[in-house]
User: Fold YneQ from Metabacillus indicus.
Amino acid sequence: MAFGINRRELNEWKSQVEKGEVAFLTHFWIDPRFRNSHAVTKAGCSDVGKLIRWGESYGLKKEWIHDYKNLPHYDLMGELQIRVLKDHGLSSHIKKFNLEKKPADH
Assistant:
């Protein structure tokens, strides 16, 4: 389940992906398979060759690309997600979704 974004943000991401740009969309996300992640960043591009090359620069495999609703993308979580967002000047995503939360002191 995705939440924390609005229709405009989603449509902007879709438009960029469809134009063949590598585009990023971060949203809150709940999936019992990934209990340590509360948000995901989708890195998408309709030019799959371009997306594969981009992904390879981060050690991602082409087999990890999802093609949901004709919007090819990688799902990024954790440290890689933070690195990619920083590399692409998207620190606002990190802040908005509290991705660098510090573990509680014990």
Notes: The CA atoms of residues 24 and 88 lie 9 Å apart. The chain is about 35% helix and 25% strand.
